[in-house]
Specification:
This protein is mainly β. It contains no helices and 12 strands.
Length: 114
Amino acid sequence: RPIVSIVRTAPWPLPVRIAMLERHPLSSQVFFPLTQDPFLIVVAPDDNPPQPQRLRAFITNGRQGVNYRRGVWHHPLLAVGKIADFLVLDRSDIEENCDEADFSEHEITIGGLQ
């Protein structure tokens, strides 16, 4: 069952430390910025578990959304600079739809964002 939400997220301090990723094995997930502020996207290939050295980070222009395909490892919303609001399209069901990978032993830092 699809669900639409509006989520407000506080900005992450720079440099951003990535200590975990998540994926949704049963559905895709959409994030669309409502405040038109850039946000950070962090993803990894479909390895199980994801490999920290294979993470990729992108910064949006604030006017584009992202649709994570079912099963794609990604970091939860990462606003940068100021509070940001997002329209989120997700799945609502009694089945568990979130796997997490812990990177706390390999904490990765992303910095130097403009």
